[in-house]
Sequence to fold (740 residues):
Amino acid sequence: MRGARRRLAPYVFVLPFVVVFLVFSVYPLIFTARLSFTNWRGTGAAEWVGWDNYTYLLTNPAFWNSLGNSGVLWLLIVPVQIALGVLVAVLLNSATLRLRGLYRVAFIVPFVTPLVAVAQIWVVLFDQGYGAVNALLGVFGLPDVGWLTTSTWAKPTLALLFLWKTTGFIVIILLSGLQSINGSLYEAAELDGASKPRQLVSITVPLLRRTIMFAVVLQTLAVFQMFAEPFVVTQGGPYNSTTTAGYYLYNHITRADLGTGAANSFLLVILVMALSLFFVRLLRAKD
Amino acid sequence: MYRHHLRRRPARLTVAAAVVVVGLGLAACGPETTTSDETSHILQAPGADQPEGEITIWDRSGDLFEVFEGVIDDFNATYPGITVNHIAVDIDAKLHNTLITGTDVPDGVFLDDAKIGGFADYLWDLSEVLAPYTADIAPQKLDVNTVDGGIFGVPFDLDPGLLFYNAAALDAAGVDATSIETYDDLLDAARAYKAAVPGSGPIHLEQSAFLGQLQLEMYASQLGTSIADAHGELRLESPEFERILTFLDTVREEELGTRAEYLTPTDLAELENGNQVFYPWAIWFSFAPQQLLTEAAGDWRAMELPAWDAGGPRSGAMGGSSFVLPREGENADLAWLFYEFLMFDEAGYTAVWGPNDVYPTGLNTSIPSYQPAADPGTPLFDPVDALGGQDLWVVATEAGAQIPGGAPTPSWWAGAVDYLGNDIQRMLDGDLTPAEVLSQATQSIQTNLVDRQ
Fold:
């Protein structure tokens, strides 16, 4: 009797998680999979359309454009954010820095500020005719730039907003990684005459590799699912140049084209999983 | 170790299989996706003289919510047995999910006209309850609420397009705006103003893809047409749309326009400094002189839109909203009484558009779509100080009475912005001709929206 209880105990402990997992993850996943093969619009009969939604998306330039936009945003955001994050984290971790607590708070404030409020400020700052940024450029004799009104500049402007908003979060993650590095390594390096930059390149970055990869995976997911930023700042424009993969998916849902939306979700899941696996493999290869 | 791993494999497979089986079972419990019932969806008014019950009404948060909130007491004076549970809701975010799940469905909802077609399957057909009023409702509002012969919304406001103009700046330049009768006259007036004020862009050119398309529909409504007909067939490639786009393209080509998004900092600054003096827009632009303009407040006036042909209609509709009654609502028939009072009872529409706690001089950003309430001789709201004391009521109601019918809104209207709205902007960039916009947008909308309905 006691043996049976002991064998059952682990299953009882994991049961609450399994129930939640089934209801909130497995069920939506399977329901969405079924939906992706129909033309259901939320009411009435759902006609089975086979692979039609998938072929529609895969042959639709707008779908690839949304992936391309997310890809460009990834390039504009993630490498810059990681480099910036490491530098700031190292500075904030320095024992000689005064008011460290204040700086740490300052860096996390943008992350906890409501995006809608920030977006409104962004719209005003980057207004083509009367924004502060163009006014500053004017001081140096530079022409006005259509930051939010030209497809050339809308993505970098959106990337800048994302960087400003989320870099503090990445800094916190990297800071926790930094604090797990044994200080004696730096002492030994100093005794060997290694300069600070050399210590950064030869000790900090290699030992932070796992944390950096974690941050890269997190931000890759965030960039490909990015929705709120283009929604409130550019509404995906101009000319769909800031329609990210997440925003394009949202468009199907709002048009009640739930079958195509479901198929789009699955294609995104596959893409994001492939990217995450790639980074995990990269990490393992280095190990 | 390897053997231990092998022993576990069947167990893992069993667990995975169990997860899939349970998941499939749960998926089968999802919303019904196979059939629709054939019961009547035509709403009947309640039979009792003094009906009782509770209704849940969704409105957008903001000033209109407060206005409707203020009418509830008046409604209860007539219907004391009906309790109104009035809630401010992000309707765009919540309505669709609520209707799909059928949970906590409200009895009445405030909804943009452009969205009604997309929700018709969930809504009561109001043809019978509206029958006593339909002859007196603006035809354009009936068009946008009609889907396959049924009427799915109680028409709320009519938003006539007007030509707002900076009278002080135009007077100073020696241009008489009041003599403008056609769009050709408008172009001539703009040319004259530009000659007097070099560097100006007299006519507003909308830079938002969404609002640009909405403005295009205003011009089209004036010509009695719209993107699609009542059967959902596209009719963009028509002389009417070519004419409208050619007008806009002329404004661009001759540098007679100020390209800006509606009431963004650039737009406001150009309105204030006298560079932008003509604003063809819906009546709700009157919000700008009243709330946003400082230096030029009082300089602006409104008149009917120019006609496309001399003697033609002097207005088209731009935007607007209605009230819809979901079939899953518990007391939709009582909600109908609420909206009937609000829109068709003098006490109701006077409380909405007349002076109230929210708008001491009345709600002057729209007019009633119920024609007896929109009588030019019986103003509901007062003259507008920010328009130099002009009687906007008279201008708007006379313009509204000229809006032709025959301009329904397809359910996919908002989705067309990705194609038509963007292509208009490309034309304003000088990258497409009007004919290219129409053929390209037609093809894209047909493929991506119409064919996928």
In short: Confidence is low (pLDDT under 50) at residues 33-37 of chain B. The radius of gyration of chain B is 25 Å.
